[in-house]
Amino acid sequence: MLSYERRFFKEGFRWIAGVDEAGRGPLAGPVVAAAVILPEEFRNEEIDDSKKLTARKRESLFGLIEESALSYGIAILSAEDIDRLNIYQATKAAMGNALESLSLPPDLVITDAMPLEGISCPVVPLVKADAQCLNVAAASILAKVTRDRIMDELDARYPEYGFRRNKGYGTREHLDALERLGPIPGIHRCSFGPVKAALEKKLLLF
């Protein structure tokens, strides 16, 4: 997990930020990005790609990462932002915002295969970085837990869509609710195919 960081530390980089996102694929909710700078001496074998961990484990590691990080930042872009920018550009913008919110300026950034422009230090996009770099794995946990909490809050407001269970992804339950109830303004991503189709069908009924 630390092989890349060790290499960069040996090359003289001191503040290495890992960046990752959660929520590129769902039909509803925001995209969330996080950036984390952990101390060079930090070790924790439980931190891994957030997709490999249970929700309970992610929650327990969230607090540990907050306490242990030299600096971390979390950025959220809404469904409306995604519709305006497109999901790829919104993801990049969220990552850039997360980096800008760090209290400690990084001298190297590692992302999970996402190239970033306009960053004042070198950026290294690595495929599956969240499974190979501790800082990126930590960022993936912060982003995932933050987004899951948002979707749980939305579930309390709109229980018919099952957001606590599907986190905004296009499950059968979610698609059925879209068919019956239509999209929620400001929550569903109207530029995504299934949401756009449900919105057009709803408009035809009026």
Overview of this structure, please?
The protein is α/β, with parallel strands linked by helices and 206 residues long. The chain folds into two domains: 3-155, Ribonuclease H-like superfamily/Ribonuclease H (Nucleotidyltransferase, domain 5, 2-Layer Sandwich), CATH 3.30.420; 159-200, no CATH class. It is 45% helix and 15% strand. It has helices spanning 3-10, 55-68, 79-85, 87-100, 134-157, 163-166, 172-181, 193-204, and strands spanning 16-22, 31-37, 71-77, 108-112, 123-126. Strands 3-2-1-4-5 form a five-stranded mixed beta sheet, with helices on both faces. α2 packs across α5 (134-157), α3 packs across α4 and α7 packs parallel to α8 (193-204). The N and C termini lie far apart (55 Å). The model has no long low-confidence stretch (mean pLDDT 94).
How would you describe this structure in keywords?
206 residues, 5-stranded mixed β-sheet, Nucleotidyltransferase, domain 5
